[in-house]
Amino acid sequence: MDSYKESNKLNVLSSNIPKLMISPRTRANYYSSPESIMKYLRSSPLASSGSSSSAKSSFRSSASPQLKTPLKVVEEDVLVVDGVLVASDTNILGSGSSSSSSGTPGFYKTEICRAWEELGHCQYGSRCQFAHGKEEERPTYFPFKSKPEAQMYMSYSSPLSGTYGSKSKSRLLHPVMETTAIMTPKDSTPRPYYPSRNFSTPTKAEETTNSFFTPQSEHTRLTANFTMKPKISKISPFTIRPDFGAATSTNETDWSPQDDGIDVTLPSLSGKTPSRGDVDAYIDKILYGPATRRRLPVFSAICPETHYRFSKFTIPHASTQLAPKPPPVLKTAPVIVIGGGLAGLAAATRLKSDDIPFLLLEASDGVGGRVRTDVVDGFLLDRGFQIFITAYPEAQKLLNYNELNLQRFYSGAKVYYDGQFHTVADPLRHFSDSLLSLTNPIGSIVDKLLIALTRARVLTKSDEEILTTGEVSTIELLKSIGFSDSMIGRFFRPFFGGIFFDRELETTSRLFDFIFKCLALGDNTLPAKGIGEIPNQLAAKLPSNSILLNSKVVSVDFEDSNSPSVRLESGEVLKSEVGVIMAVDEPAVDKILAGRKRPVQTKKPARSTVCLYFSADKNQIPVRDPVLFLNGSGKGIVNNMFFATNVAPSYGPADKALVSVSLIGLFEDVSDDDLTAEVIREVSGWFGASIAESWKHLRTYRIGFAQPNQSPPTDLMKNPNVEPGLYLCGDYMTSATFDGALVSGRRAVEALLKDRALARV
C-alpha cells in the first residue's frame, strides 16, 4: 500500500503539470517550481501492486543506470536518453551496481534475446548476454526481467496486446507512461494513442479526491484509456496533448527543430538544408520504421554524446516562451571584403598581390555586381547598356585585353534626326566620314572644331588633375565652351546622356572630361563573351576558396573598433583580424551600417535605366556596321540602340541578330508589355514597321541603381577610411565608371595597409 500511495502522490503532483514525450527515448517534465525534484523510475509491475520491496528490487535489476539517479529538472528542460546502454562507468552506477555481464562500460548489446522476444521474460535477467529490448529498442515491450512480472502483465487485456507494426507478438504498454505525444502520420494509417494510466485500483475516497480519474470501474477505465485513437494532422506528426483527465489544456501547436533555430542535417540530402517536411518525414521514419539505433537528427544536432548519456535541450510549449536561438558561429579572416563587383574584386586582387589572406563575400550567385551577362535562348544579354573603353588606365593594369577578345564599335555614331540618320565620326579614325559630316545638321562646322579643341584640352591634363579641378555641370561646361544648341541637343544629350544615364547632362564636368579623354585615347568595345567576362577574369585569378557566394551581409559590428566583425543573413559571424572593406553601392552601405554615425551627405537620386533586348533574323536588320544609333530628335523614349551581334557576333546564334534598346529612367508606371510595344512603335519610324515588328522580345532589364548621381558638388577622391578597421570602395567613391570602381578597390586596400603598417604603398 505504501508503494501505491507513493505512486498516487506522484500522479496527483503531476496532474496539473504538462509533460511531453517526444519519443520512447525522451522524457520532458515541466515543473511549476524549480525546487521540484522527481525520480525518473522505470516502473515495475510490482510497484503498483503494493510490494515496496519488490519494486525496489525490480528497479535495481531492470532500470538503466542513468535512470536511477534523482534529477533536479528546471522548467523546459528535456532529458534525452539514446540507445540501449548496458553498462556505464562505476562512478555513475555505484560500487554495487550490476547492469550487464559484458563487463565493458559504455557498450551496447547488438542482438535481442530470443527468449525475451518470444516469451516476454528471460531466466537470466540482467545477466543475459543479449539485449532484452528495452523501450529504446522496442518501444512497446516491457523491460521484464523475471517470469512472474511477465505473467502479471499478460493477465491484462487491451487492444494493444495484439499486433503492433509488422509482428503479431504480444506487446503490452508500460503501465507508468506518465506523458504522451501523439505521433500522427501524414497518411491515414492509425497509430496507438497512449494515455496516462496508473494500474493501481484506487479506493472510492481516492477516486473522489483524485483529479486524475473520474469514478468508474477499473474495467471501464482500462478499456477507455487503451482505445486506438488516431488523429491525423495535416501539418506535422507532432501534436502535444495534456495528461489524461487533467484540467489543463494546451494549444495544439506543431513543433519542428527549425522552430528553435536548430540546424538539422539529413544523410540523404548530402549537406543541403532540409525542408520542414523532410525533417518530419525522417523523424517519422525513425520512430515508426524498422528498429534502429540511429539518433534522431534533431538530437544529433543539439545533444552531443556525453559521459553520463544525458543531454538537455529546450522545446517550445504552449505555456512557455520559445527557446533562444543558438549562438552564431564565429570564424575569423585577416581581411573581409564585402561585395564581389568590380571594386571588391580589385580590392581582392591587390590583397592577393601583397600575400594577405582575405575572404570575399558576395550576396548573389555570381561575381560582377552590376556588370553581369545572362544567357537567354543562345543570346548574351548584358544587364543594361554597358560599353568598355580600352583607355581606362586602371583597367589596363588589371585586365588581359587579349583574353577578353574585345570587339570594337565604330568611332562615332549615327544620329536619327528629322526622319533620317546622320553620321558623326572621329576625324582621326574615320577621316573621310568626318569630311562628309561637316555639313550635316548635327552641329555646325564650328562645333566640329570645338570638339577638336576640347580633345586637345583634356589630353594635356592628368587624370588626377581632371578629377580634382573645379567643376560645373556638363551642360554648363558645353555652353561655356561655345557649342551650339543643335550640337548639344542632337549629339551630346543622347551620347553622353546614354553614358551617364543623365539626359539633362547635370553630371559633373570632371566626369565629362575624364570620359572624353578616354574616348580620345581608346575604343568603345564589348568582350566577346559579354561584359560579365571582365569581373570573371578578375575572379579567376583569385584563390578558389577566397570567394563565398550567396553570403549576404546584414551588419558590421564594432565590439572591437580595431577589428570589426561581419554578420551574415544566415546568422554566421565572421571576425576580421585586420579590417573590413565594404565594396557595395552606397544604398547598401547605408543599410548595413544603419545606426552608425557617418558624415552627413546630401542624398541625390540614383541614375536608372531600362534596357530591352530583341532577337531578329539576320536579314531583318537594316545595317551591318558596328555603330551606335542615337535619338537626336528630342522626341520619344528611346535614347540609343545598337545591333550587338554587329559589334560582337558571339552575342547571338549564327543566323540571328541581337537588338539592344536603351531608355533613360525607370518608367515604373509602365508595364513591360506596354513599354515593349512603345519601343517597337518608335523604332518602326526609324527602320520601318516591316523590320521592327518582326523582332521578338527577349527580356527587359530595369536597373534602378545603374550609377550613382555625380552632379556637382562631388568629391571623386574620397578618403576610403571611414572608421578604424572599416574602408569603403565603389564607383561612388571616385568616378562612376568601370575605371573608377577598380581604382576605388585598390585605394581602399592601400589605406588599410598603411593604417596597419603591413606594406609599403
UniProtKB/TrEMBL annotation:
Domain C3H1-type: 107-135
Family matches, as InterPro entries: Amino_oxidase, FAD/NAD-bd_sf, Znf_CCCH, Znf_CCCH_sf
Zinc finger map (C3H1-type): 107-135
Keywords from the UniProt entry: Metal-binding, Repeat, Zinc, Zinc-finger
Keyword presence, Isomerase: no
Pfam families per UniProt: Amino_oxidase, zf-CCCH
Domain of life: Eukaryota
Record flagged with keyword Zinc: yes
A GO molecular-function annotation: zinc ion binding
PANTHER family: AMINE OXIDASE
Protein name: Zinc finger, CCCH-type
Source species taxonomy: Eukaryota, Viridiplantae, Streptophyta, Embryophyta, Tracheophyta
